[in-house]
Design a protein that fits this description.
Length: about 80
């Protein structure tokens, strides 16, 4: 498996981070030291994935945010900046 270089000090936004490839990317990048913003459509599923990742990596820097890329209000002029 590819070893991810040190990501300390980086903020990485991952869409679809509540399952599958997105969740695995969030897990591996957090393990490499990145602060990971988990962009999800369903916050409850994102929080569940967050808990699962934190079980194995309690010091991971992860945050769940509701972002639906199908809705322009979620990423253009959003009142909650990344």
């Amino acid at each position: 498996m590819y070893a991810i270089p040190d990501q300390t000090g980086r903020l990485i936004v991952i869409t679809g981070a509540n399952s599958g490839t997105g969740k695995e990317a969030a897990r591996r990048l957090a393990a490499a030291g990145a602060r990971v913003l988990m962009a999800v459509r369903t916050v409850a599923k994102g929080e569940q994935a967050l808990g699962e990742i934190l079980t194995g990596q309690p010091n991971a820097q992860l945050e769940v945010r509701h972002i639906d890329l199908g809705l322009s209000c979620c990423f253009r002029g959003s009142p909650t900046p990344l």
